[in-house]
Amino acid sequence: MPGSTGPFDAAVTGIGMVTAAGIGSRASWDVIRDPGGTVASGVPALDGLPAHIGCWIPDYDADKAIGRRKAWRYDRSSQFAITAAAEAVADSGLSQGDWDGTRVAVVLGSGIGGAASWEKQHHVLLDGGPLNVSPLLIPMLAVNMSAGYVAMEHGARGPNFVTATACASGTTAIGMARELLRQGVCDVVITGGTEACLIPSIVTGFSQMGALSRRQDNPRAASRPFDVDRDGFVPAEGAAVLVLERAADAKARGARVYANVCGYGASADAHHATAPDPTGAGAELALRAALDDAGLAPDTVDHVNAHGTSTPLNDEAEAKLIRRVLGQRPAVTSIKGVVGHSLGAAGAIEAAVTALTISQGVIPPTANLDSQDPKIELDVVAKTARTATVEVAVSNSFGFGGQNAVLAFSRV
User: Fold this and answer.
1) In three state form, how does the secondary structure of 2-42 look?
2) Is residue 262 annotated as a catalytic residue, yes or no?
3) Fewest CB within a 10 Å sphere: which of 84, 98, 171, 237?
4) Any catalytic annotation for residue 55?
C-alpha cells in the first residue's frame, strides 16, 4: 500500500543473465556453481596494453539475441540489458498481455553506461571528421538508455530510471525497485544492472590506479578473492535482470518464486574517492539497515554473497565488517573469483546468484582461493560448492565514492 512501512517481501519470479560464465541464467549458474577458475582471458580490444585480460563474452551475438534491425542502434551495455530482461520476463511467466504497462517499472544500474560507443565515436571524430560521427551516439552512450530500451521492448510505462552508484549500482537498483513495490507505485519491476566497458580507456584507467591484478599472463588465476596472494580485480562485462513482484501477488497467481528480497540498506563512507573506510563503519550502516529493514537479527544470516573484489584493501575491510556484525557463522563466497568484477552490473549478477543459491540449496565456491588470508577470519566456501539450506542471505556491494548497498534475501 502507498506509504506502507515495516517488513516487506518482494518476490523474485524471473531471472535473466548474460555473463562471461554463460549466456542465460542456467548457463551462468552452472559455471559459477562448479568453476575451474576465473573465466578470464585476453580481450582483443585490449591487445598491446599493459592490462589486457578480462571476463568478456565472446559468444554473445546481438543480431541473434535482439535482431539485426535493432542491435546496431544500441551500445553493448544496452544489448546485454535487453537480452537479460527478455529472459527474466519469460522466466517469470508474465508478458505484456498479463499486465497494465503503466504499473510496470524498469530500474537498472550501470556505473559507466555506453562508454564503448563513446570511445569508438571519438576515434571516428578524430580520424574521419564530424560528419562521420553516428547520429545515434547520444542515445548509445547515455547511461539511462538501457532502462529506456528495456521499457520499449516490454511496454513498461511506469517509472523508468538508472541508478549510478559505481560498483553498487545494480544492488541500488534492486533496492529502489523493491521500494517502488512497497510504496504501491507499481505492481511489477524489471530490475538489475548492466555494464560493457572492456575498452582501452576504462581498463587502462583502472590499471593506472593500481586496482587490477598483475597476473596478466595467467588470467584464469588472476581473480582470487580472500586469498593471501590476491593483488587486484579482473574487469568484466555482463548483465543480470530480476523480475520483482509483491510476494502476495506472486503467490496469488501461482508463480514460481526463487527467493524474496526482504531488506535493503544503503550508506556512504564519506571517507575517500576510491579506498574503502578501513573501519568498515559506513558499510556496517548499510548492512545493519538491510537487516533492520527485513526485521532480521544478525545471527539469522546463513550466507553472505560478498563484494569480494580480490583487492587487498576491500577484501580485508569487508571481512572485518562481516565478522563484526554477523560473526563467523555465515558461509561466505565471492563469485568474482569466477566472473570477475563487472562494475555496475556486479551487484545485480550477485543478487541473481544469491536468489539461485537459496532456491537451489547450493552455495557456489570462491574460485582460486588456494590459501585464505589469515586476516580473513571467515568461513569462506572454497574450491567446491557446498550444499546447504539457506534461509537468510545478504549480498554486499561497495563502490568508489564510498557507496555501500546491501540486499537481504529470504527463502520462500
Assistant:
1) CCCCCCCCEEEEEEEEEECCEECHHHHHHHHHCCCCCCCEE
2) no
3) 98
4) no
